[in-house]
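Worked example

This section walks through a single chain of length 469. The input is the sequence exactly as stored; nothing has been trimmed or padded.
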Amino acid sequence: MWKFPRTRYADCNGSEASEETEIAVNIGGVKRILYGDVLNRYPETRLAELVNSSTNSTQEDLSALCDDYDELKREFYFDRDPEAFKCILELYYHGEIRIKRGICPIRFKREMDYWGIDEEHLNERCKIHLNDVETDLAEIVERAKAILDDLKEEVTVTRGQRCQAFLRKLMEKPKSSLAARVISVVSIAFILLSTVIMCVSTIPELQVQDAEGNLVENPIIDCIETTCIIWFTVKYILRLVSSSNKLRFLISFMNIIDFLTIMPFYIVLILGTAMMELGSVQQAVQSLRVMRVSLRVMRIARIFKLARHSSGLRTLALALKFSLKELGLMFVYMSVGVFLFSALGYTIEQSQPETMFTSIPLSFWWAISSMSTVGYGDMYPQTTLGKCNAAVSFLCGILAITLPLNLIINNFVVIYNKQHALENTAKHEIKLMALHAEDEAQECQEAGKMPSQASVSNHSVWDSAGVTA
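Given that input, the structure is written out below as tokens.
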């Protein structure tokens, strides 16, 4: 039997009866003696209600507050975790709860709900840890649901719904079938091909001359570019048609990127046709050439299409999102340094007859290249003090970049490992659910019953995650 020491003072919420009352509780086979004046510090909890009801309540009322009650021994039995109960008792003696290592936070939250204790009594670090675990479990649930959506057959009624579901699986779920996987691979190949073609088309040796002697894109490269655009357009239209929520599809970030990659081609095509009908062919060709150069920059967005097929790029974007504070810190350091050293460089070098530091804004370029340790050499100080200022800017630039950079790298490593672990856990939960379904089917067959489809399909991923947490 483990006995807590009686407190030296009584709480104002406790009555005289509760101060002199002690109760014996048995938590998972471990017996403890608790005192009423301690438990009544938090009168809304189950233990406080138990100690206040132990003197003037019937056995039925007391049994409602515990799993079992021995009237002879006056001992209350609880089928709960004794290690978690030790943490629960810290609230009454220390005013807050700390979750010990080795205790599942989700299970401990259930213990707190059972004993009638609110989460606000948790230690701040434990509260943050509990929120992180809940977020991870929610993400595991979403990933597991996504995997189940890829595997399960969608309930369709009409022929149009069946065609829409078929297209959705073919375009959005590469793991659903061999054909969907082939389309995904072909899409990646077209993305890489269009990116390479965009770069190769700018090589002067591969360009051809028109009738006026101007260099234009090679017709073969134009044909390949047109083929890629046709593929992107057909896939975008099919994905839009198969989408169950058209508005959500159109405003999605990745779908906006897809639209921007194909829009320049059709803008040039439509405007070029209109100009050729309204004006001369020569003016239309010149206008098309200008528009192609202006809209070429939008074709760069095609590289972002790889993020749809690459988990590494998505992890990088997520790491940068969680590192906005560190990136902002690095930007502030660099901004202060650039302003300081450019102003000093201009002040020191302006007395030189052939100085390159003609103004402070122009000196910003020198300060940025110096602090980033690039040093193009197009601007450089000539005086001794200016060179000393440049040397100090080198050192400060290294510190301004490397100090926040370590935090950013650490965030990337943590997020990468976390994403990998969540993916594996989601797949593990799917396997557990399949095993549970098989066990249920076997038990029903032995009992002479058939398992209902609803009981198999509606198996809770959260419950499965809670079991293994």
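What to look for: The two ends are 30 Å apart (CA to CA).
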